[in-house]
Structures are given as C-alpha cells and as structure tokens.
Amino acid sequence: MSLQRRRGQLARIWKTKVTTDNRGNEIRVADPNDVHEVRVWAIPQRSARAEVPGQQQINVIRIGTAADLERVDLYSRVEYGGTVWDVVTPPAYHHGTRHTRHWSLDLRERP
Fold first, then answer.
1. Which pLDDT score, from 0 to 100, does residue 8 have?
2. Dihedral sign, Cα of residue 71, residue 77, residue 79, residue 80
3. Do 88 and 75 form a contact (C-beta atoms < 8 A)?
4. Residue 108: C-alpha distances to residues 42, 55, 73 (Å)
5. I need a surface site. Which of 38, 70, 79, 81 has the fewest CB within 10 A?
6. 69: nearest Cα among 89, 54, 52, 99
7. Is 99 within 8 Å of 109 (Cβ atoms)?
C-alpha cells in the first residue's frame, strides 16, 4: 500500500436519495446531510484552462478509496480540496489483492 493511499486527503462524498419533485415525479438528488467521510487519493486526469474571459475552465480528477461506497452514483457530489465536484463516472470496483482493492470515480469541478 502506498503512502498516498494510506495517508490520503479527506473527502466528503454525498450519498444519493430519491425524492419527489413538484410535479410528482421521483427524482434522484445528492443529499448533503448523509455523507461518506473517507480518505482518498487523487490523480489529475485532464484540464482545460480558460484563456479568454467568459470561457469555462474544466478540471477532471480521479479519486480512489478503500471504503465501500453505497448509494453513490452519477447524481452524487464530492467535497474535496475545498471545492465541490460532480461525479462523472459511477464508482468502479477494482478487485485485486487485499492491499490493492479499491473504488475509483472521476470527478469534474463545478463551475
């Protein structure tokens, strides 16, 4: 197990809940009151810096954790590094040896 995995940074991963909107439809939303507080490692994936005022800046990172992520999907959000991120890929379970199995998901920084 690498030092980065054992002593990663803290992140709050919001779980997803099902609610009813004003038209009676069931929708999935991120629940800021029900979170996973886990240690994660992060790897930058890609970024697009805004060169001209008015353009959008896009940052994408991949985080991984050893914790089981129940009720986390594309509608969840993550608080990491002082900013809020959207989940852009559902959690993927990587089964390896006892020391290397983990969950990973890609995040996009909210504008």
1. 82
2. positive
3. no
4. 12, 16, 14
5. 70
6. 89
7. no
How many Å apart are CA 75 and CA 83, to the nearest integer? 17
Question: How many other β-carbons are positioned within 10 Å of the β-carbon of residue 74?
Answer: 13
Tens digit of pLDDT for each residue in 24-74?
Answer: 999 999 999 999 999 999 988 877 666 666 666 778 899 998 878 889 999
* DSSP string covering the chain: --HHHHT-EEEEEEEEEEEE-TTS-EEEEEEEEEEEEEEEEEEEEEEE---STTPPPEEEEEEEESS--TT-STT-EEEETTEEEEE-S--EEE--STTT-EEEEEEEE--
**Per-residue tokens: 100:** 């290397």
Q: What is the pTM of this model?
A: 0.80
